[in-house]
Amino acid sequence: MSNIIERMLESFYGKYGDRNSKPVLFFSPGRVNLIGEHTDYNGGFVFPCALNFGTYLMIRNNGGKNIRFSTLNFTEEHSVPVKEEYKRIERSWVNYPLGVINEFAKLGYLLPGSDLLFYGDVPNGAGLSSSASIEMVTACAVNEITGAGLALIDLVKLSQKAENIFVGMNCGIMDQFASGFGKKDHAIFLNCDTLDYENVPLILGDYSLIITNTNKRRGLTDSKYNERRAECDKAVEYLQAYRKIRNLSETGTDELALLNKYIPDEIVLKRARHVITENGRVLEAVKVLKENNIARFGELMNQSHDSLRGDYEVTGIELDTLVYEGRKIAGVLGTRMTGAGFGGCTVSIVHKDHVEEYINTITEAYTRKTGLNADFYQPSVGNGSGRIEF
Ligand code: GLA
Fold it and tell me: Long-range contacts made by residues 283-290, C-beta under 8 angstroms, separation at least 24?
């Protein structure tokens, strides 16, 4: 039994008692998006992969009338009576699992009185989908315990809905999809309009994936995120004058000239240009990765960041410092922000012989320029959500 599972089990019995009745265990990973940012809610392409860290959930029917929530990450605990409809608890981590339990209840699948213990090793609010991983792990567990028998894709959609409605973050589908469908050593090329996907082997040879955390508090992320979504909707409205489209991604890179013609608002035009060019970059990135052209893949990552900074304006001094200082270092093929932006993490492809130099140089430069300390992770790419036997 791994250390994490042993610790969870001890804590589970400590909190909820009855060592003779073993709980069941589920795991859902966090994700890092390699390229394709702010395209998912525009019906575009994304290319994320699941990480080897995420959220664990131990759960057991308690035969009572309450659902009890606890976690090894925070001291805050809750006990909520089983109901047919749940209400949001102000400013609580419990909203993520409760929102999912609420979505199942709406479908007629009531989670009986149960004891839940979570543990997450994804850094919170760092843009690595700690939220999607806690939603997906809850969805897998509730699906099994209530006998709902929903397909994985429905758990993904249900979790996204819980985050949109219950948590109030109007996210797209990428994070929950990656957490659900991740495959070891593969990235997921997903069309967010049709939900068709392909697992592409992530073979980086002498290069490593490095995630660097700005450790910048998220602050306004949610409101700025929703603002960007509204700007994209506006762009669609303008483009309707030219042809009926359902989303921005129905406009191809060969049609960029249309933007100047039909979008009079400079800001809206920049947002649309990012989405359309980013879709083009994802298509090329997938192609060059299959051809083993990691150098070109890195260039596309760099272009993606520049577009997110200039056109989409979701970066900021912290992310830009990591990226532009990173690019000065030998062996860094590509480096960009990942996730919603404004803070959170960058993802970089760094030659194995230069990883130490990258970490040392960035540690110094980042603190000098921002006064903050960066954290570094060298993740491996793992599988998606499911039950773990132990
Ligand atoms: C967040 C959202 C995703 C996606 C990214 C930006 O992670 O949860 O749906 O929109 O931002 O690409």
Answer: 283/45, 285/34, 285/35, 285/36, 285/47, 286/47, 286/189, 286/198, 286/200, 289/187, 289/200, 289/202, 290/200
